Amino acid sequence: MASDLQIQLQALSHPDARGLLAAINRGIEKESLRITPQGKLAQTPHPAGLGSALTHASITTDYSEALLEFITPVSASIGESLEQLENIHSYVYQKLDNEILWSASMPCIVAGDDSIPVARYGSSNVARMKTVYRYGLGHRYGRLMQAIAGIHYNFSMPQAYWDKTWREAGCPGEQADYISERYLGLIRNFRRYSWLLIYLYGASPAVCASFLKGRDSHGLQPFDAQGKSLYMPYGTSLRMGGLGYNSDAQKQLNVCYNSLDYYVKTLSSAIMQPHPAYRDIPMGQHGDYQQLNDSLLQIENEFYSPIRPKRVARSGETPLCALVRGGIEYIEVRCVDINPFSAVGLDAEQMRFLDTFLLYCLLQESPACDDDEQSEQADNLEAVVNTGRQPGLALKNKGADVPLSQWGREMLEAMRPIAQLLDTTHGSGDYISSLEHQLAKVADTELTPSARVLREMHERELPFFRLAMSYSEQWAQYYRERPLPPDEQARFEHETLRSLQAQAEIEQADDIGFDEYLQNFFAQYRTLQGSSG
């Protein structure tokens, strides 16, 4: 009997369906720290020449005033997405004066929490909410963790694909519900197999010792006699482990992706229910807002996950309310390290494999997940983060020990028909070529980015900071010399002015106080609680 994957691949291989794969939509969100020429975190405000971080379509900030975030428009072209990301970099470098962008995920030299300025967005209620939320994160998890940078890869199938597959499935229920269920299946499989992405693309096996100053229980080893760098000998992505986007408090959150309703109910409950550990952080007494609330989550964005279901929200609408209103529109992959060996942090080959991998997760059968499997997934991810390149490393697959090299090879071979179909669609051999490169990495750990980081540190006798600094300077020179097409220059200049005007209009439109604004915002979650039963 043919598998779900084989049946769906056969349907997509028909000449009238192949064009659907050419219309896959992608968007990239890439974070980069601004640093001084000496490699220290910039203490300057968000550059005025970049417009408003609150309203600019392409350039904003994440946690810190010094942590830039670049956003590409939705596109069906990998080349177009990468070119747009390069154009954003080129424009930003025009406005940075002597500052440069840090080339790695783990931070540059930092001097504790106080050295990390929290992002500011203006005087409006929505701007103040964004800043207060960040203060809350700092109190709960420390600001150092928030200085880690990464790449988010947004992925969606074209509407024509959903029209076709929904009809072929017999038009079950509302189409929006069908699409959400399929995306949830993708997410469940992604969580089963995301360890493979961490192994293949993790690029943060080491960190500057300043990041862990005063912290003894980190489990890392000194890389050099001077103790300037700490590392995991077989580590892949410290960013995705206990040093990075991780939260002991959130481990009690049993977030299930078997249904959208359960997902919404779990997260909205965590936003509405007080958490004793956060009770003493000010949340508005005498006007002192150091967090939005004392719940386990201030808002849903605080929930750390390597993948999220998403829908573009309307003005003032919460992300969860957007999902309830219209269902899942796209998924956001959040476990991608910045590749310091690439000018933009990732390349076309990686994007092609991400597409292949995500299609595999979408088309492959995806049974419901239970607590035991979720625990197994967490253990596998932790093992690959800390010891992914260790010879003979075994992972758990339904309770059985399976060597990473064997499981990885089997999965990649199962993806081969998908890569072939994508190559047929695009008239190229690029997808199979990308797959072959991943097979080579599974066969030889030295070909992984994490191995290359440690190898270059050793061969060039450089601590992590100096290695990342050398690539930061290399890419800074590249972008300063890279001409920006005149039409793109004009577009960015226009967007800078438009964003400043938009921020001013938002500030002028506020007609209620901040307390009332927050009450209205959080009332949406109470509505969700009622609708979820």
Descriptive report:
Helix content is 47%, strand content 11%. It is an alpha+beta fold and 533 residues long. Strands 1, 2, 3, 4, 5, 11 and 12 form a seven-stranded antiparallel β-sheet that branches. Strands 6-8-7 form a three-stranded antiparallel β-sheet, with no helix packed on it. Strands 9-10 form a two-stranded antiparallel sheet. A hairpin with a 6-residue loop joins β7 (221-222) and β8 (229-231). α7 (175-201) packs parallel to α11 (371-387) and α8 (260-272) packs across α18 (514-531). The longest helix is centred in the middle third of the chain and has 27 residues, at 175-201. 44% of the residues are buried. The model has no long low-confidence stretch (mean pLDDT 94).
Question: Topology, pairings included?
Answer:
Blueprint: H1 4-12, H2 18-22, E1 25-35, E2 59-61, E3 67-71, H3 78-94, E4 100-101, H4 125-141, H5 143-146, E5 151-156, H6 159-168, H7 175-201, E6 206-208, E7 221-222, E8 229-231, H8 260-272, E9 283-285, E10 288-289, E11 307-310, H9 319-326, E12 330-336, H10 348-363, H11 371-387, E13 394-397, E14 400-403, H12 404-414, H13 416-426, H14 430-443, H15 449-459, H16 464-481, H17 486-509, H18 514-531
Antiparallel strand pairs: 1-3, 1-4, 1-5, 2-3, 5-12, 6-8, 7-8, 9-10, 11-12, 13-14
Helix pairs in contact: 7-10, 7-11, 8-9, 8-18, 10-14, 12-14, 13-14
